Amino acid sequence: MDECGLNTPYDGDEYCILPPPQDKGFQIHIGPSDYNNPEPEYVLQPGEENVVDMSATSGNDKPIYYYYRQYRMRPGSHHVIITSNGRRLGGTQNLAKDNPDLGEIPEENKNIGLPLDAHASINMNLHYYNFTDKPIIREVWANFWYKDESEVKESAREVFSPTGVSAAVAHSHVVVGASCPVSSEGRLLSLYGHRHLNNVRFSVFHKSGAGARQLVLEDYESEHPSVFEFNSIAKNELPDPVKKRPGAISGILNVKPGDTIDFECEIINMTDKNFTGANEAADDEMCILVGDAVGGGLAPFCTPMQAKHITN
Fold this sequence. Notes:
CATH architecture of the largest domain: Sandwich
CATH topology of the largest domain: Jelly Rolls
Number of domains: 2
Oligomer: single chain
């Protein structure tokens, strides 16, 4: 944070980060070339909201593995989703997020890597909104740090499983969700819920084949959600639904065939429109399970659960 010494007319200069050393990784930067005269595609006027895809090329000149990523975005951002040839490489809904959190690496995760081809074509999907009374700019910095190929024994992947929100019709209070069967052994490294401003609760449950359904995490902040990691050294606080304090279980989150991962969103739609899953932060809603996993085989499209309508 605040590594670049920027002094522009726009909010969020402190989010700029420097790229990794050239032999340690690369940075993808999306933003204007001149802050005093920014290109129109990077400027959002008051009241404007849109989603754009912007292209980039990865900075590695040979195939590599990576795991550690850093994301920084200026205020007004809702998300960045980074893909290559349809494969999700990373992303965030937070203005500043490291994945995994920088610090001690648990023993079971020291051999994890995600592959990336040399000079890979990158798509940056950016959702920005301007709810202020002055122009803002669209800008994101994403650092990918290399992982020594000799250390990589397990390949990780991104989890991204959406469910529908059509039950959240105008002036309704509803819970929607989905159930994701586990098709292979593995473990979930991190999880969070991607959603919009009408979501008041996101919950994830793990049900073992013959066991009870256990609450894994619960979050009540939708704009910049909490991201929880599950490993041998993670010390997560349990959620507090009364104080609306997010939380999660601690420890390694192993999964196996016959298990399910269920997730649900509690949505209060006070607008005059029916929600359809559009990219509108205040006037529509989404409910998506996101994270990183080793194995596990969670389906990209899980089985929707019957919506629960709540009478206030």
